[in-house]
Amino acid sequence: MRIEKYVNKHYDELNQTEKEIASFVMMHPKETIVMSLTELAQACLVSRSAIFRFTKKIGLSGFNRLKYILEDDQMNNESQRDEDYLERTINAIDAAARQFKNKDVEKIYASFDKAKNIYICSTGWVQEIVSNQLQRDFFIVGKNAYVLPGEVDELGIVLKKMKPGDVLIIISFNGENERLVEKVKQAQIRGIVTLSFTSVSQNKLAENAQYSLYYNVIDKQVPSPNRNESFFTGLYVLNDLLTMGYADYRKHQELEEQDGKGKKEEQS
Fold it and tell me: Lower Cβ count inside 10 Å, N or C end of the chain?
């Protein structure tokens, strides 16, 4: 989306209120298009002037320009949704892979290695499927992993049983569940390492988690009934890359340990 580029370019200049406005606009573009300035301000629980300042901060001339860009984004999305699904799938895979070149994932792997237990919490049906797959993959590489119920209250109960150094992975779509974010904050106070998977790069869950990874969602029109469906290609790829990368990390650690033992034996 073009609006996301505007926000990302100026994101560090935004205050917390303006970040919340940005999050609402990007998550509810269709609703924002038909809103008046007053209605958007009410929806974001801010003043009309706060909306105007936000548009200026991201480099736009005002509210009408914001709506124009959102409308243009929607038109482009509709025209490309069916034509470019193959290209968008390739882009989703590429975006997931690119993170493992640009992020310091070694720190994430080190946290996995030190953790006695890894807990996986998800919100959403597809995310729950991926959680179960991730649990299986951790088992393959020799780590204890537990899939938690999606209810936030259940997470709160289990949170009390987690130990410092354990890892909590949260798989979410938009990362804006306030109660879930609060549990993440509580986990970190208890010394629990947190890692989020979300579909958008600016969200409260990603901001508060110790580590954050992102995935792309592809919208495609499907028949019977005729509707738009979301495909989570990026999330599945992200899951596989994380597991394969961690498997390599463990293999490398074992080789280093063997090499260290061999040197000690030679010295003795």
Answer: C
Instruction: Give this prediction's pTM.
Output: 0.67
Question: For the segment 89-127, what is each residue's pLDDT rounded down to a tens digit?
Answer: 888 898 888 888 777 899 999 999 999 999 999 888 888
